[in-house]
Prior knowledge:
Bet v I/Major latex protein domain-containing protein, START-like_dom_sf, 3 helices, Bet_v_I_allergen
Amino acid sequence: MTKEVKTQAKIGVGLDIVWKALAKDLKSTIPSMIPNLVKDADVIEGDGGLGTVYLFNFGPDIKTMTYQKEKVSEFDESLHRIALEVIEGGHLNLGFSYYNTIFQLTATEEGETLIEVTVAYDSEIDDDTLPLKTTSSTLAFIKNLENYLVNAAS
């Protein structure tokens, strides 16, 4: 049975900049943003849109996995919504049989961006700490993204 955890955060960066970083420049954004966690990223298949497959090779701070392949399972530029499904390695080697992360971006009146994240997953192990780990790592990712984009702009 698929379970979901949701979280959200508002960051002090405009929608267009965040969308470009997450949806258009993901291959370069992630390794530049968190090089100790993601050493490099490559597009294995596709053009960045729906169906694109990314290969993320993990850096020295990730001890439990070496790589993860993710497929863009949803891509809607008009709604600023992108979903990435793990299709090989990574989370699937840690007891998950399905792991999909959906990012929904919304502009706020203050020129900031609200990022709503839904992680849908199936787990082969019964571990009540998984949702907590998932949301805390997602919030840490969003904070790193904000820091990276703010520093890139200055």
